[in-house]
C-alpha cells in the first residue's frame, strides 16, 4: 500500500506513468491476501462483533475470516467485469488514420472507429501495443461528435508519450524544426517538407510512405464522462484552459460551432474562452480551429476569446510584435482578431466585472432581473490555478448571478 500511495502523486504519474500503472496492479495481490489471511482461524479468541444478531450469516461457531468474501466479492466482480468489458470494446475495429505534429511536440492522433460514440468534453483511454502491451493512458477527446474522426492531442512529456512520438516519426528533429518555424512566425507552405513529411499551416502531417513502418495499431476504450459535458445547461459558459489543458475545450468549441449553425444551443447564450500559454509555439496547437470558430461567428458578442501569454519576451521580439501589430487586423502571434494579452489574468477582477455586466443588463440584453443567471466555469489545468479561479468564481456569487466551478480530473 505504501508503494501504491507513493506512486499516485501527480508528478510521478506525469513523468513516469509506468511506475504508477504497474505498482497499482499490486492491488490484485493485496486482495488475494485480504481474502486468504484468515484461513485456518489462526487468530483465535476474538470477541464477536456487536452486530452479529443483525446479520444472520455471522455464525459464532464459524471463524469470521472465512466469511469475509461475502462482502468483498461483489465489488471484485464489478472490477473484473469492467476489465473484461474494456478488452471487448477495445478490440472493435479502430484505425489510426493520421498523425499530425504541432509546435512544441504536441501530436494529434486522428482515428476512425465507427462503433465509438461520444459527446463533447469526454475523454478516453488509449493503448498502443507496440509501445506498451499492458498500459492504458487517458487523453481528452479534441474532436467534435460531428467530425468524421476521433482525435486526441498528446504532449511528449513522459516515457510513454516520448516513445510513442519516436514510433510514429515525431522525432526531436521534426519537433525542433517545427517549433523554430513557429517562433520565427514562418507560415509553412502546403508543399513544404520536413524530413520527407508534408507541412501545412501550423502542423506537420506524418507521411507513412516516407518511412519503412506503417502507423501503429491503436486501441481505444471509452468514452468517459467529464464536467464540461454540462456546458449547455449554463447561460454563460466560462472555459479556462492552461497549456495542453485546452484540449477538452477544442472539442466543446467545435461542438458549439456545429450546434450554433443548427440553432440548438439550449440555455447557452454567451461563451468566454480563456487560454493561458507559457510560450508562443503552443498557439499552433489549435490556431486553425480558433480562426475558423472566430470567423464563423454571426454574433460578435456570443464568443469572446481571451488568450494570455505568460512567457517573458525579449526586447527584440517585443519590438517585432509591436511593429507588426500596428494597424493590423489580426494579432501577429495568433492570427486572430482578438489581441493577445501578456501576463497572468486577474481572476477576481474578471469575475467581478462579469457579474457587474450581467447585473447591469449590458451582458445579456433582455434578461429579466427577476431571474438568476447561471454562469458555469469549466477548467482544465494545474491545481494551483484551479484553486485561485474557483475562489474568485464562488466569491462573485450574488442574489441574481450564480457562479459554479468544475475541474477536469483524470
TrEMBL record:
Asked if the keyword Oxidoreductase belongs to this entry, the reply reads yes
Q: Which GO terms describe its molecular function?
A: superoxide-generating NAD(P)H oxidase activity
Q: What Gene3D superfamilies does its record include?
A: Nucleotide-binding domain of ferredoxin-NADP reductase (FNR) module, Translation factors
Write out the GO biological process terms.
defense response; superoxide anion generation
Which branch of life, at top level? Eukaryota
For this protein, the record's InterPro entries field holds:
Cyt_b245_heavy_chain, FAD-bd_8, FAD-bd_FR_type, Fe_red_NAD-bd_6, FNR_nucleotide-bd, RBOH/FRE, Riboflavin_synthase-like_b-brl
A GO cellular component annotation here is: NADPH oxidase complex
Keyword line? Electron transport, Oxidoreductase, Transport
Question: Could you tell me which residue ranges the FAD-binding FR-type domain spans?
Answer: 83-230
**Name of the protein this chain belongs to:** FAD-binding FR-type domain-containing protein
Per the UniProt entry, what species is this protein from, by scientific name? Serendipita vermifera MAFF 305830
Amino acid at each position: 500500500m505504501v508503494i501504491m500511495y507513493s506512486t499516485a502523486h501527480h508528478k510521478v504519474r506525469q513523468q513516469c506513468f509506468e511506475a504508477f500503472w504497474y505498482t497499482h496492479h499490486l492491488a490484485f495481490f493485496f486482495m488475494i491476501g485480504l481474502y486468504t489471511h484468515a484461513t485456518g482461524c489462526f487468530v483465535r479468541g476474538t470477541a464477536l462483533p456487536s452486530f452479529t444478531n443483525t446479520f444472520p450469516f455471522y455464525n459464532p461457531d464459524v471463524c469470521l475470516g472465512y466469511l469475509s468474501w461475502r462482502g468483498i466479492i461483489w465489488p471484485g466482480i464489478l472490477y473484473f467485469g469492467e476489465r473484461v468489458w474494456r478488452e471487448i470494446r477495445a478490440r472493435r475495429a479502430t484505425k489510426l488514420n493520421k498523425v499530425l505534429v504541432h509546435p512544441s511536440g504536441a501530436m494529434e492522433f486522428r482515428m476512425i472507429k465507427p462503433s465509438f460514440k461520444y459527446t463533447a468534453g469526454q475523454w478516453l483511454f488509449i493503448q498502443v501495443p507496440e509501445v506498451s502491451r499492458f498500459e492504458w493512458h487517458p487523453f481528452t477527446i479534441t474532436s467534435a461528435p460531428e467530425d468524421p474522426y476521433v482525435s486526441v492531442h498528446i504532449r511528449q512529456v513522459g516515457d510513454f508519450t516520448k516513445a510513442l512520438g519516436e514510433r510514429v516519426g515525431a522525432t526531436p528533429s521534426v519537433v525542433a524544426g517545427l517549433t523554430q518555424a513557429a517562433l520565427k512566425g514562418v507560415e509553412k507552405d502546403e508543399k513544404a517538407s520536413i524530413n520527407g513529411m508534408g507541412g501545412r499551416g501550423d502542423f506537420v502531417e506524418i507521411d507513412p510512405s516516407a518511412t519503412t513502418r506503417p502507423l501503429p495499431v491503436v486501441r481505444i476504450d471509452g468514452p468517459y464522462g467529464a464536467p464540461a459535458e454540462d456546458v449547455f445547461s449554463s447561460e454563460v459558459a466560462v472555459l479556462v484552459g492552461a497549456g495542453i489543458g485546452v484540449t477538452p475545450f477544442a472539442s466543446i468549441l467545435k461542438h458549439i460551432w456545429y450546434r450554433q449553425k443548427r440553432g440548438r444551443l439550449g440555455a447557452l447564450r454567451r461563451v468566454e474562452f480563456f487560454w493561458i500559454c507559457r510560450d508562443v509555439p503552443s498557439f499552433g496547437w489549435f490556431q486553425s480551429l480558433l480562426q475558423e470558430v472566430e470567423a464563423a461567428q454571426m454574433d460578435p458578442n456570443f464568443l469572446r476569446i481571451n488568450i494570455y501569454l505568460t512567457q517573458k519576451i525579449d526586447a527584440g521580439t517585443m519590438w517585432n510584435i509591436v511593429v507588426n501589430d500596428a494597424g493590423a487586423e489580426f494579432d501577429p502571434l495568433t492570427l486572430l482578431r482578438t489581441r493577445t494579452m501578456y501576463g497572468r489574468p486577474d481572476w477576481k477582477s474578471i469575475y467581478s466585472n462579469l457579474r457587474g455586466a450581467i447585473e447591469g443588463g449590458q451582458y445579456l440584453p433582455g434578461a429579466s432581473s427577476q431571474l438568476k443567471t447561471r454562469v458555469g466555469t469549466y477548467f482544465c489545468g494545474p491545481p494551483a490555478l484551479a484553486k485561485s479561479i474557483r475562489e474568485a468564481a464562488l466569491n462573485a456569487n450574488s442574489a441574481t448571478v450564480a457562479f459554479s466551478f468544475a475541474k477536469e480530473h483524470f
